[in-house]
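re: the backbone from monday

yeah here it is again, tokenized this time
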């Protein structure tokens, strides 16, 4: 079928109806079979109350508040929850209510039983809007003279029949789903290709891309690029702008240029972003293709870029070469507070590129040294600007923590094979927490500067009532924070718990900062903090009717500086470009005085329509709830993929250590055993409780420890233990460990357990 249910619902207008013939043209349905599939879908959706007929040949939306849009999340043990798109309480779905939906599918759910104080509401899947899994990794198994594929992902609670005669002997294969299960008929598929486990780094990347369903990248459509507007640009080519880069791979995305100087007791910061928005026509084939790709993907020392080669070449910043940009000037106080800003179109010419080696040499250089290290000589004229840049970044970090930011110290593993994944991620809002500022990583500095620019646009967009994509800090689950707090209390940290509720995440992070158990506690806290997701700010009347609190607006960020890295930045940049190019800066052409549309607070001076009626409609058409859902779904995919890349590289590094003994720290305790983190790769392995055969161990969840009944020996979160590596499964990222008995010291009789 050429369309999903979600595609069909997207085409239905919010008000009024649409002709079925128009839908056939939109989906390019040419033959009778394809047109019949559309009628079948309409009939099915009509029966469950999602749509209704408007005459003989038209359909329209039906408002049924009982149907809730959600994404299905299952566990390997068979528990499934519908995660609501509106942020409401998760809905428990029993296996007989799944209606053949799989993990990750977007579904419509109807609640069948209301939740209680300690019980989630229950519901059933009424309709599958969009399938997440179209191909999967699987093992083949012969059952009763038929071949079936058993998914490697044990959250997919299904098996897939494959055609008779399948004789693939590979340990792992890619299976394409040809038919999803329906009624009494099981899912069917076919083996697309074998995937060997010993094909080296390239084979590992291919395997992980296939697992994430990101291995098939559609070819970009041909499209001519537009030339940026030359009339309204500010000539900033005389400004000594710098490029801050930690990534080294060939196709790593280009990042913004920056310039900073002391100003009024603080700093004046310029951020220049590659102007991709001016080179694209919003809504054309290439723009839609980029929206489907959503993000550039880092696979270590190899990238899957977001942009086409033509876009990369047209927008690249290079030292000594003039290039068009979209820029913002930020005035910051000595404490990192945003005082003023101004957006503009510009033309810049970077003077130097600053990498990690240069910052390391700058950090090692004595303050009053007269000699300049060799690595700093190419940028010796910019040393003063670099020092000001570090001052600006530190002040912005302080301001972020003052505003409730959470600082967690969780550096990337020290593995050369991780490549560009070892560097700080530069775009704003990737996580719900901040890493400590690393003055030797250019992108760690850049990330703080870009977060300030994203906050400035969020506030400016709100002032002018323009639509946009925003990231807001998510609410952490109170019970999860309470569990982390109880763990800290068990480790005798100075933290008091009361009946009024759990401590704030920022409070916990502050208590953990000086603790010897900081890393393991920071890991626990990170798991309690959900990653930020995109939300749609509609602007204009929608925001006037919504009571948007001032602190919520201040907390939002609207990323726009890295359009080479993620398409959300590009879409926000398209709004900025439209404002600066086509926004009306005076009521009529008869008025001589113009209003600078990029300046802070300009909204109070405008009492006329900012755009023409047709352009206003076009700008709002760039945004939709479906767009936000797609971006968030792709972000989850990419996040999971990059997490798997790190885990597989850690497991690969551990293969050569099988049989060796290593000292590690207990990073998690469960009833079935405990996890040990082994430096420097920080790989995590499991010591199963069955291997602790010197005693019978009881799990004490409140103290995060296992305690032996006879010897009273304990294994607690944060303890250092010596373990032997027994087995490594790189496919499932599982490391089996055992405690070295000789390393265990007997406990005194009066030991506190």
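seq for it, each position gets an aa:
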């Amino acid at each position: 079928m050429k369309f999903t249910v979600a595609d069909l619902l997207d085409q239905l207008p919010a008000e009024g109806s649409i002709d079925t013939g128009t839908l056939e043209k939109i989906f390019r349905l040419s033959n009778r079979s394809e047109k019949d599939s559309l009628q079948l879908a309409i009939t099915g959706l009509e029966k469950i109350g999602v749509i209704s007929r408007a005459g003989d040949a038209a359909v329209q939306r039906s408002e049924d508040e009982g149907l809730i849009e959600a994404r299905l999340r299952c566990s390997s043990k068979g528990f499934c929850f519908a995660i609501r798109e509106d942020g409401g309480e998760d809905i428990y779905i029993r296996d007989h209510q799944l209606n053949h939906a799989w993990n990750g599918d977007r579904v419509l759910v109807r609640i069948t039983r209301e939740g209680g104080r300690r019980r989630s509401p229950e519901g059933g899947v009424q309709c599958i809007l969009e399938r997440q899994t179209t191909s999967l990794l699987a093992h083949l198994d012969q059952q009763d003279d038929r071949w079936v594929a058993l998914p490697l992902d044990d959250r997919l609670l299904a098996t897939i029949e494959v055609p008779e005669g399948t004789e693939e002997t590979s340990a792992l294969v890619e299976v394409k789903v040809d038919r999803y299960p329906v009624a009494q008929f099981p899912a069917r598929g076919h083996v697309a290709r074998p995937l060997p486990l010993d094909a080296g780094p390239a084979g590992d990347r291919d395997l992980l891309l296939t697992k994430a369903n990101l291995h098939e990248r559609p070819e970009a459509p041909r499209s001519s690029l537009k030339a940026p507007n030359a009339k309204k640009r500010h000539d900033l080519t005389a400004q000594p702008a710098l490029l801050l880069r930690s990534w080294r791979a060939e196709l790593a995305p280009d990042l913004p240029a920056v310039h900073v100087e002391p100003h009024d007791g603080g700093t004046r910061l310029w951020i220049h972003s590659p102007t991709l928005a001016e080179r694209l026509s919003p809504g054309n084939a290439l723009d839609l293709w980029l929206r489907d790709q959503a993000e550039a993907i880092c696979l270590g020392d190899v990238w899957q870029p977001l942009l086409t080669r033509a876009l990369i070449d047209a927008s690249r910043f290079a030292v000594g070469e003039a290039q068009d940009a979209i820029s913002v000037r930020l005035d910051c106080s000595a404490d990192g507070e945003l005082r003023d800003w101004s957006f503009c179109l510009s033309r810049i010419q970077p003077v130097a590129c600053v990498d990690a080696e240069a910052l390391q040499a700058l950090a090692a250089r004595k303050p009053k040294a007269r000699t300049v290290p060799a690595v700093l000589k190419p940028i010796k004229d910019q040393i003063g600007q670099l020092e000001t840049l570090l001052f600006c970044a530190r002040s912005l970090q302080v301001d972020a923590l003052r505003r409730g930011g959470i600082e967690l110290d969780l550096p990337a593993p020290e593995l050369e094979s991780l490549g560009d994944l070892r560097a700080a991620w530069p775009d704003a809002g990737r996580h719900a927490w901040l890493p400590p500022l690393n003055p030797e990583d250019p992108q760690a500095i850049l990330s703080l500067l870009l977060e300030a620019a994203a906050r400035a646009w969020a506030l400016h967009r709100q002032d002018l009532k323009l639509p946009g994509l925003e990231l807001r800090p998510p609410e952490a689950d109170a019970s999860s924070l309470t569990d982390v707090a109880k763990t800290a209390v068990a480790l005798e940290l100075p933290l008091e718990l009361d009946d009024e509720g759990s401590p704030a995440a920022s409070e916990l992070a502050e208590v953990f900062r000086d603790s010897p158990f900081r890393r393991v506690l920071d890991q626990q806290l990170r798991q309690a903090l959900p990653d930020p997701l995109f939300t749609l700010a509609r602007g204009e009347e929608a925001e006037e009717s919504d009571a948007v609190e001032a602190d919520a607006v201040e907390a939002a960020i609207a990323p726009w500086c890295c359009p080479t890295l993620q398409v959300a930045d590009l879409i926000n940049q398209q709004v900025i470009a439209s404002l600066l190019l086509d926004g009306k800066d005076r009521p009529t052409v008869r008025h001589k005085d113009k209003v600078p549309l990029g300046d802070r607070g300009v909204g109070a001076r405008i009492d006329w329509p900012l755009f023409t009626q047709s352009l206003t409609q076009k700008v709002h058409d760039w945004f939709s709830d479906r767009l936000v859902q797609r971006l968030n779904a792709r972000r989850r995919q990419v996040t999971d993929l990059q997490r798997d890349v790190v885990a597989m590289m850690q497991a690969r590094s551990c293969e050569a250590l099988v049989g060796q003994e290593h000292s590690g720290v207990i990073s998690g305790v469960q009833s079935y055993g405990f996890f040990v983190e082994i430096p420097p790769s920080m790989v995590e392995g499991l010591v199963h409780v069955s291997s602790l055969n010197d005693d019978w161990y009881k799990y004490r969840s409140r103290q995060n420890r296992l305690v032996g009944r006879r010897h009273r020996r304990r294994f607690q979160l944060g303890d250092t233990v010596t373990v032997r590596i027994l087995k490594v499964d790189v496919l499932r990222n599982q490391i089996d460990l055992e405690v070295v008995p000789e390393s265990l010291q007997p406990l005194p009789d009066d030991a506190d357990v």
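The first helix runs from residue 5 to 11. The CA atoms of residues 115 and 121 lie 4 Å apart.
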